[in-house]
C-alpha cells in the first residue's frame, strides 16, 4: 500500500490505515532519537540536563497514570470511573422518538497496571512463600474461604424447598 | 543514572520520576537492578535532608517508590545482602510517610514481605529501623489490600524472637483471621 503523505487529493474518505502508519512513523522517530539523546554528554547541573530528564520523564509516563492524575482532582479513582462508565448507557431513539437504552459495546482494554503488578507478583511470591509456612497457611485458608462463599448459596437453595420445610408445605 | 546522582534538585526529581515510571514495566526491572538503579534509588531515598538539601522530598518518595516497584517482582535471593538490607530503610520511610498513597504503601509492603523472607539479618534490620510499629500502624489502614499486605509482612516476621517478645502470636493470629475473613 502506498501512503500519500500530503493527502491533498480532495478525497474526504477517512483512512484509518494511513493514520495508523503515520502514528507508527512518529513513534519510530521518537524511539530512534532516544539513543541519540542518551549519547549526549551534558553537565548534570545544566539546564539542558534538566530539559533532557524532563523529556525522558514525558516519554516514560503511561496513559493510565495521566488518567489517574486527571481523575484525582475529582476525588475518584480510575477503577471507580470505569465502573461508572460501565453503568452508563448510550441513549438512542427509535423510529417513534422513544428513548431506547442500549448497553455500551465493551471495548478491549488492557488490564490495569495495578492488576498487572499483582499478577506478576504471584509467581515470585510463590517462590517466597515456599520458605514461609505461615504465609502458605494463610493463602490456603483464603482460598478455602472463597470457595465456601461461592458454593454455599446453591446448597442452601436446594435445602429450602416445600418437600424439606414443613412450614412451606402447610402454607402451600 | 548520572542525572539522578549528580544533577540539580529539579533534575534529580525529574530523573527519579522517570526511573519510577520506567519501573512500571515489569520486564525492565531486572535491567534496572543490573545497571545500578536500585542502589542509586536507595541512596537518593535515604539521603538526609539536613546534609543534602538538594534532594527534595518528592525525589525521595519517587526513588523509594521505584525501589518498591522493583522489589515486588524481583527474587530477593538474587540480590546481594547489602542490597536487601539497604532497601529496608527507604521502604519503611515510604510506609510511614503521610503523603504516600495507598498504592505506594501496598507496593512497599509487598517488597518488604519479599525481603523479609530471606533470613535473620533482614529481620534484625527491619526491627532496628522500627519497622514493627510502622507496619503495625498499616495493619489498621483504611484500604483492605494494604491491611492484608501489612499482615503478610508481619507473618514473615513470626519466626523472629525479638518480634515474638513485642507482640504475642495470638494477637497477630486474631488479626490475620479477622482480615482474611473480610
Produce the secondary structure layout.
The complex is a heterodimer of chains A (172) and B (182).
Chain A: H1 16-39, H2 47-60, H3 63-72, H4 78-87, E1 89-93, E2 99-103, H5 113-129, H6 133-159, H7 166-171
Antiparallel strand pairs in A: 1-2
Chain B: H1 2-6, H2 9-22, H3 29-34, H4 37-45, H5 57-73, H6 81-95, H7 102-116, H8 120-128, H9 131-138, H10 144-155, H11 161-166, H12 169-180
Describe this structure in words.
The complex is a heterodimer of chains A (172) and B (182). Chain A is mostly helical and 172 residues long. Chain A has seven helices and two strands; from the N terminus they run ααααββααα. Chain A has a domain at 123-160. Chain B has 182 residues and is mainly α. Chain B has helices at 2-6, 9-22, 29-34, 37-45, 57-73, 81-95, 102-116, 120-128, 131-138, 144-155, 161-166, 169-180. In chain B, helix 2 (9-22) packs parallel to helix 5 (57-73), helix 6 (81-95) packs antiparallel against helix 7 (102-116) and helix 10 (144-155) runs antiparallel to helix 12 (169-180). The A-B interface holds A 44-45, 49-50, 52-54, 56-57, 60-62, 65, 113-114, 116-117, 120-121, 124-125, 127-129, 131-132, 134-135, 138, 141-142, 145 and B 2-3, 5-8, 10-11, 14-15, 17-18, 21-22, 24, 26, 69, 72-76, 103, 107, 110, 113-114, 117, 151-152, 155-156, 158, 176-177, 180-181.
List keywords for this structure.
heterodimer, A: 172 residues, mainly alpha, two-stranded antiparallel sheet, 2 strands, 63% helix, disordered N terminus, disordered C terminus, B: 182 residues, 12 helices, 0% strand
Amino acid at each position: 500500500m502506498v501512503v500519500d503523505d500530503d493527502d491533498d487529493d480532495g478525497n474526504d474518505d477517512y483512512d484509518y490505515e494511513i493514520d495508523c502508519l503515520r502514528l507508527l512513523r512518529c513513534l519510530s522517530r521518537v524511539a530512534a532519537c532516544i539513543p541519540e539523546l542518551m549519547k549526549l554528554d551534558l553537565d548534570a547541573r545544566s539546564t539542558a540536563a534538566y530539559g533532557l530528564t524532563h523529556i525522558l520523564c514525558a516519554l516514560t509516563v503511561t496513559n493510565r497514570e495521566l488518567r489517574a492524575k486527571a481523575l484525582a482532582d475529582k476525588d475518584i479513582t480510575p477503577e471507580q470511573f470505569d465502573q461508572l462508565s460501565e453503568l452508563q448507557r448510550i441513549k438512542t431513539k427509535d423510529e417513534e422518538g422513544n428513548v431506547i437504552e442500549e448497553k455500551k459495546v465493551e471495548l478491549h482494554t488492557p488490564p490495569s497496571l495495578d492488576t498487572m503488578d499483582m499478577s506478576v507478583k504471584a509467581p515470585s511470591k510463590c517462590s517466597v512463600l515456599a520458605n514461609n509456612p505461615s504465609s502458605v497457611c494463610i493463602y490456603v485458608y483464603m482460598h478455602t474461604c472463597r470457595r465456601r462463599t461461592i458454593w454455599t448459596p446453591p446448597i442452601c437453595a436446594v435445602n429450602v424447598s416445600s418437600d424439606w420445610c414443613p412450614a412451606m408445605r402447610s402454607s402451600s | 543514572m548520572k542525572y539522578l546522582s549528580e544533577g540539580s534538585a529539579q533534575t534529580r526529581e525529574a530523573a527519579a520520576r522517570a526511573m519510577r515510571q520506567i519501573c512500571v514495566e515489569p520486564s525492565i526491572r531486572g535491567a534496572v537492578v543490573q545497571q545500578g538503579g536500585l542502589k542509586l534509588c536507595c541512596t537518593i531515598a535515604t539521603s538526609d535532608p539536613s546534609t543534602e538539601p538538594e534532594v527534595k522530598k518528592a525525589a525521595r518518595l519517587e526513588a523509594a517508590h521505584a525501589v518498591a516497584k522493583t522489589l515486588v517482582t524481583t527474587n530477593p535471593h538474587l540480590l546481594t545482602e547489602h542490597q536487601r538490607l539497604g532497601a529496608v530503610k527507604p521502604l519503611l520511610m515510604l510506609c510511614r510517610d503521610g503523603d504516600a498513597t495507598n498504592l505506594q504503601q501496598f507496593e512497599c509492603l509487598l517488597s518488604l514481605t519479599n525481603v523479609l523472607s530471606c533470613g535473620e539479618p533482614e529481620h534484625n534490620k527491619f526491627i532496628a529501623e522500627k519497622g514493627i510499629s510502622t507496619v503495625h500502624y498499616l495493619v489498621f489502614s483504611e484500604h483492605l489490600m494494604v491491611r492484608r499486605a501489612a499482615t503478610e509482612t508481619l507473618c514473615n516476621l513470626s519466626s523472629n524472637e525479638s518480634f515474638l517478645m513485642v507482640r504475642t502470636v495470638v494477637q497477630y493470629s486474631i488479626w490475620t483471621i479477622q482480615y482474611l475473613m473480610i
